Fold this protein.
Amino acid sequence: MNADSFQQLDKVIHEKNRMAIMSLLAAIQEMSFTDIRETLNMTDGNLITHIRTLQKAGYVSVSKSFKEKRPLTTCRLTTEGSSAFSGYVDLLEGIVKQARKIN
């Protein structure tokens, strides 16, 4: 097992809630804050904290608008976020393949 592979994991994405957010946004290009919160069963405060971390890293963009006179906050992966997530998944797949060779 190559220990360097683990050091290369993106720590911003690797946290389980942020990985879940990134996975959702990779599958569904744009999603409302409310839908993310309900899908992942997270509190508003917890979700906001993780989205801000992903935003600060440049992985997620947030836009605010109105739908039927109600505020609507939507999130989507940026190009950088999509690339980072793809690289993260590729690295995880490599780690799993290495582990299977050992067994």
Helices lie at 3-7, 11-14, 16-27, 33-40, 44-56, 79-102. The chain has one domain: 3-93. The first helix runs from residue 3 to 7.
